[in-house]
Design brief:
- The chain is an all-beta fold and 457 residues long.
- The protein has 1 helix and 41 strands.
- Strands 1-29-30-33-34 form a 5-stranded mixed beta sheet, with no helix packed on it.
- A hairpin with a 2-residue loop joins β4 and β5 (88-93).
- The longest helix has 7 residues, at 8-14.
Length: 457
Amino acid sequence: MKFDGLSRRDLFSTLFLLSLCVPSCVSGCGSHEDQGASSFNDSLDGVPYCPKGKIRWTAELDAIQGSFAQPSIPVVVGSLVYVPNGGGVAAYDVETGRRKLIGESAQFGVSGIRSAVCGELLLIAFGNGALAAYRLDDLSIAWRAKFDLAEAEVFAGYRIDDATGEQIPEYSRKPALWNVTDILVHDDRAFVGFSSFQTDPGSYLICTSTHDGEVCWTREYPGRFCFNGGASCPQVAQAGLLVPVPESCGFELLSFEDGSALDQFDMDAPVGTGFAALDSSGESFMFQTRSGDLHVVEISGEGLDVSKVYSAAEYEGQMLLPNSALPALCAGWIYCNASVEAHMGDDGFLHSQGAGGLIAVERESGRAIRSGEGYRFDSTPVVVRDRETDGLLLLCLQEGCLQSVNVDGGIVESVKTVSEEAVLSMDGINGPCVFAGDGVMLCVAGDTARRILVALD
């Protein structure tokens, strides 16, 4: 394994990401969020205990309709947990699971996917390229916005050319289905990305006013924030909006005000995970490229300062991250998935072969260790406390169960199944586990046909 720490200048001379699972708002809106756990922690302050795995309650949710298969991430505000449900949103009592509020339909004809809190509003993004704001107290709609996005061009059949008798393909246009990034909020602005494999351009990044949904600015990209195995989402920093350029080898720092590029950084591989915070300053983030390299970016008044802290091993074949789970900082070590060899599937996409274990990089020294061969994070892990030792663990929602990972000094010591009821339907999701104030863990399990909101003690 090769491992180095390069300065921004060195990286520029030689010649790239998704959202973190702590509250996304650096300032302004979002103060109501009470998620309880984060992807970084080096102390026990505010860290929830690992759940025992006992189900407190479950609630059936509506199936996903008219949208791509994207699991919803619950949002906890006080004693209620909010989750997109059907064409709107529902709120459940954290203690009992009783449904307390049901929001009116946004009348978009598709399911809501992503959500974020902004002051007294809950923002819901929909799979048809729309955004709605619900009032938290009664889930009435404050405003809704349907964005002017490209339509899908679909094959409609053949027509016969009268002169030649040849079959000529014909196409028609219809509303596209969209993948949705995390919704980010800064002051009175909301930022959300929409991506589709049916359209050109492939992605839109839209900034709206949180007061009325009016569009402030839009950026178009030919590539897509989503990809096979996950997605890389923009992230709010103190100085601006960090945006992975979709399917390109670089990322940008954009102005909150008008979306102009304040700085940019080019690399030799596309962003693979999105940005995870190293602390609460909004100035330090970590991310992996699709080839498995781990980077740290520091943001200051002078722009982006990027260092490579781990270089993936080089193989003759192509390397690929198994999914887009964000790195996690625990007890001074950054933990992330190791890249694996990739093969081209019949669907035309690259697929990872097996699980390559975890990479741990000591934050202070840069020392790198590989362990846990055959294990991988299926989703972004969160830092929790061990009930027996009071030490730190990584809690991860996996495809088959919820697991706690005991790590010590960069080494995976043990993996324990916490619950077989809480399962992940799609890997590479950013932070699907959230915690309420009394320590209960909440997640959405199941698939697009049958979704369940699970609360674990």
